[in-house]
């Protein structure tokens, strides 16, 4: 069964997202939001980087500090950790389901491939000149690389996170990330890459709101598409 | 390594495993509930507690009774090791060799208290391992002492029981699972960096557990007990995960 239909009628751009993908997208969005928010607070308790930098408390997640102090006589780390290690399972199980579905349904092959360096160079240069048009239901090479990139960043962040969580039981994995201390740095930069993706991802969604509609109701189409000169 | 001591362990992990797999079925339902960003509400707190208990089981499942924590070279040992407690070092309990007694309680056959001399006469071994704090910092240190399982064996503790609990002179308390208590690297540390354990680090001993986070390594232990009822712990009762394995 086709997951994303490119053109059901000539000239009509159509984006379809099956219900399963929409659910996985929003579960993932929620899990990532919780992981980043709680992760920022955890980071602040003992920064992994040797620089004077911390996340503002109001941007972090894990409950109100005064409530934590009143109920638990504890300064807010326990709650952030509880959130982090709770949302961890949601993120991982959801991602696993997405990866299996993505391969099995052909979503990855059809929508994220082929991806060649020349296609990327062409689309990237077009994007720099603001000449890259967004076509519903069809990803350009820059988008494709972005999706592969964020998937890789999420996988690396999860694996480095597991290696911090279990430096004994998963010590081979911790070793692979350069030991406990360095794995924390990898985990931090994995998060940074995901946040970088989110900035672009959300900005582009605001520029092309129909893509958001498609991810909510499952379908969006645009009027016959006029190709600008010089494109393709 | 110590097959006879660890004999009962497979039964314990077998039960944990079944519980773990059964819990897995309800995880799916649970995942739908974690969305709210106001984490102080009672409902949210109870979901977080459920997830934390789930994580206890997941960690017990992951725990390898013979899987050793990485060890390091003497040259990697941190000499100026961090003092860490919820009070300043000069307020740390001062236990003396003459007055100190380790009291035993619970599912233990021989509950006679132990003196410092008797404890220090037990066979000792050394380890150079990484102490990982729940806050994220870590330090490599050298600890020497007696494997906890040696003491548990000598006093006839019920090794099929679920928990070993600790009471400390500073009011701190904690508990660990029996498989971790029997792990070969879980020791009563009498020495730090080849010197008798300083007062601020827990004299006469701290329980050094390299397979657990730092706060699961109690200092100034005055009572040790074996039980099947979950005893909790100082930080665990303040919202931190109970198993907190590494």
In short:
The complex is a heterodimer of chains A (232) and B (246). With 232 residues, chain A is mainly alpha-helical.
The SSE string of chain A, one letter per element, is EHHHHHHHHHE
Q: If classified by CATH, what would the architecture of the largest domain in chain A be? A: Up-down Bundle
| CATH homologous superfamily identity of the largest domain in chain A | Transmembrane di-heme cytochromes, Chain C
Spans of at least 5 consecutive residues with low confidence of chain B: 1-15, 25-37
Estimate nothing, just give the exact number of structural domains of chain B.
Answer: 2
Q: Trace the largest sheet of chain A across and list its strands.
A: 1-2
Could you explain the architecture of this structure?
The complex is a heterodimer of chains A (232) and B (246). By secondary structure, chain A is mainly α. Chain A has 2 domains: 17-105; 106-212, Fumarate Reductase Cytochrome B subunit (Up-down Bundle), CATH 1.20.950.20. Chain A has helices spanning 19-45, 65-72, 77-104, 107-112, 117-128, 141-165, 171-176, 180-207, 209-217; strands at residues 13-16, 219-222. Chain A has a two-stranded antiparallel sheet with strand order 1-2. In chain A, α8 (180-207) crosses α9 (209-217). The longest helix of chain A is centred in the middle third of the chain and has 28 residues, at 77-104. The relative contact order of chain A is 0.14. Chain B starts with 8 loop residues before the first helix and ends in a 19-residue tail after the last strand. Chain B folds into 2 domains: 9-62; 74-238, Oxidoreductase, molybdopterin-binding domain (Sulfite Oxidase, Chain A, domain 2, Alpha-Beta Complex). Chain B is globular. Helices cover 24% and strands 21% of the residues of chain B. By secondary structure, chain B is α+β, with helices and mostly antiparallel strands. The longest helix of chain B is centred in the first third of the chain and has 23 residues, at 9-31. In chain B, strands 2, 3, 6, 7 and 8 form a 5-stranded antiparallel sheet that branches. In chain B, a hairpin with a 4-residue loop joins β4 (163-168) and β5. Chain B has helices spanning 9-31, 42-62, 116-120, 148-154, 178-181; strands spanning 103-106, 125-132, 138-147, 163-168, 173-177, 187-192, 195-196, 206-208, 221-227. Chains A and B meet through α1, α2, α3, α7 and α8 of A and α1 and α2 of B.
């Amino acid at each position: 069964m086709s997951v994303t239909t490119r053109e059901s009628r000539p000239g009509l751009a159509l984006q379809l997202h099956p219900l399963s993908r929409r659910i996985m997208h929003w579960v993932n969005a929620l899990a990532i939001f919780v992981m980043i928010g709680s992760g920022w607070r955890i980071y602040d308790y003992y920064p992994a980087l040797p620089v004077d930098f911390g996340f503002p408390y109001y941007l972090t997640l894990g409950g109100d500090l005064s409530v934590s102090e009143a109920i638990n006589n504890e300064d807010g780390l326990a709650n952030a950790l509880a959130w982090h290690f709770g949302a961890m399972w949601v993120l991982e199980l959801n991602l696993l389901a997405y990866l299996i579905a993505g391969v099995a349904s052909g979503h990855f092959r059809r929508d994220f491939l082929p991806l060649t360096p020349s296609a990327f160079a062409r689309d990237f240069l077009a994007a720099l000149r603001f000449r890259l048009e967004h076509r519903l239901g069809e990803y350009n090479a820059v988008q494709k690389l972005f999706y592969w990139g964020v998937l890789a960043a999420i996988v690396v962040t999860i694996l480095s996170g597991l290696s911090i969580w279990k430096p004994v039981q998963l010590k081979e994995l911790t070793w692979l990330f350069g030991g406990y201390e360095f794995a924390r740095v990898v985990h931090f930069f994995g998060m940074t890459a995901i946040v970088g993706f989110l900035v672009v991802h959300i900005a582009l969604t605001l520029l092309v709101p129909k893509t958001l509609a498609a991810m909510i109701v499952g379908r969006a189409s645009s009027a016959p598409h006029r190709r600008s000169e010089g494109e393709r | 390594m110590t097959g006879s001591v660890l004999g009962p362990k497979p039964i314990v992990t077998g039960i944990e495993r079944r519980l773990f797999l059964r819990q897995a079925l309800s995880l799916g339902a649970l995942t739908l509930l974690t969305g709210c960003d106001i984490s102080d509400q009672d409902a949210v707190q109870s979901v977080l507690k459920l997830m934390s208990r789930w994580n206890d089981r997941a960690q017990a499942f992951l725990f390898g009774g013979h899987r050793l924590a990485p060890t390091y070279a003497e040259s990697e040992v941190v000499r100026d090791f961090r003092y860490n407690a919820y009070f300043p070092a000069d307020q740390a309990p001062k236990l003396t060799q003459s007055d100190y007694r380790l009291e035993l309680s619970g599912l233990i056959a021989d509950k006679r208290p132990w003196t410092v001399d008797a404890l220090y006469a037990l066979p000792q071994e050394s380890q150079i391992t990484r102490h990982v704090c729940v806050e994220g910092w870590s330090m490599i240190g050298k600890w020497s002492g007696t494997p906890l399982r040696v003491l548990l064996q000598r006093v006839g503790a019920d090794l099929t029981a679920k928990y070993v609990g600790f009471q400390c002179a500073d009011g701190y308390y904690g508990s660990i699972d029996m498989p971790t208590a029997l792990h070969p690297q879980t020791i009563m540390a009498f020495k730090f960096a080849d010197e008798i354990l300083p007062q601020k680090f827990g004299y006469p001993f701290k329980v050094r557990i390299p397979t657990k986070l730092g706060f699961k390594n109690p200092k100034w232990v005055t009572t040790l007990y074996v039980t099947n009822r979950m005893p909790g712990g100082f930080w665990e009762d303040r919202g931190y995960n109970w198993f907190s394995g590494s």
